[in-house]
Amino acid sequence: MILKKNIFCRSLLFSFIIFLSTNAYGSTSLLATSSQNKELFFEQAEKIFVQAGKGSFNHQAINLLFKEMGNVEMPEIIFCGTPLNAMEKAEQSGNFAFMAVENTIVPGNLIFATIEALRQFAITEISAGVNMKIKQCLIRNKRAIETNAKLRKIASHPAALRQINVWKTNKNLEEIPVEEGTSAAAKSLSKEEYLPDVGVIGSSVLAEIYNNLTVTEEGIQDSDNNFTLFGLFQISRRKVLVSTVQATQALQVARDVLQIQIKVDRLFGLMKKRLLIMHNVAQWKWNHRQPIKDLSREKQLLNNLVEKGIDLGLDREYILTFFQAQIEAAKMIQEKYFKDWEDKKMNIFENVPNLKLILRPQLDELSTNLLEALRDISPLIDQVKVQEIIQSRANHILKGHGIDDAICHKVIEPLN
């Protein structure tokens, strides 16, 4: 890969916003608008309206999304049943809708209910996304497990029951279709409205909601390649109803942006974690009167990363350029801390993690994960759309203790 040496300029920051505007004829157009220092809307959102119900895979996905965001507080979550209901409530209240966009085993992949809702509504902001593996689980009442009750029946939404055919083979289980959904089945199981010989098929989050339920088997779905892409969107109502074809095109655009954004967010999230650890690294070196620079350690680290990166298909010079930038930024942060502590005549810091036993293993693991994230984004890096997203997301993600504009510029420079 040939690296470009473009200088990242914060004044040219793009916040990538998708508008699918509708004219009197119902045609759609794709617009990208820019703004400076724009905050992510979802960080200030009061509510998120989620497709499907409590205990669904959508519920598990929104939990996963905010877990991956780290320090972003989750707003109030309201479950709406369908994408259309989620969009209507989000649009009316000026908040966000969280919906399934694509599934790897659904015919055509795109979620038809979301497409139909997009005939009436347009996506005006793509804020975040998560790609989650769908793992069907067998969930039992704990009392049934304690009494060794034999499993004879399984209850769930018909769609879930159709996804576990291999697991069902030779078990002779009676099926109880629950059209209201897996959440309703789990609620009945929790309230002991089913006999002890009944289990529910669904998401593991059901066992977190009902503390008298437990997961006894996980990953019993037929396909090991069952992934769903979810998106967090801001919505506006269309002036004119558009066709299914146009709504499909709108969702395809959102999917393409989400797929890139997820890769970029993962890369930047790992870069941020690495930078934030430098506070403890600097404290340990301060306590032990150790210099910030450790050239032998840097050389060894870079050699190891080059070897691992080449095995992943990355270019040697690309690996070196990227990680040299991360190392330089890490030293810049430590130097700032040292200067501040010298000015304040700081003494010894208490309860600092050990550099060799704790901090360096953490950094080594992050570096390995960074290589994998680089592998995923590198084939796309020269695309204009990807560059816009990189610049926009850097502003939102690469911030925190010790991370200023100069640090942000340094760590993403190899990506421009």
Could you walk me through the main structural features you see in this protein, from its secondary elements to its overall organization?
This protein is α/β, with parallel strands linked by helices and 416 residues long. It folds into three domains: 10-131 and 227-263, D-Maltodextrin-Binding Protein, domain 2; 137-218, Periplasmic binding protein-like II (D-Maltodextrin-Binding Protein, domain 2); 265-415, Chorismate mutase (Chorismate Mutase Domain, subunit A). The protein contains 14 helices and twelve strands. The strands form three sheets. The protein has a five-stranded mixed β-sheet with strand order 4-3-5-12-6, with helices on both faces. Strands 9-8-10-7-11 form a five-stranded mixed β-sheet. Strand 3 (47-50), helix 1 and strand 4 (76-79) form a beta-alpha-beta unit. The longest helix has 44 residues, at 244-287. The two termini are 12 Å apart.
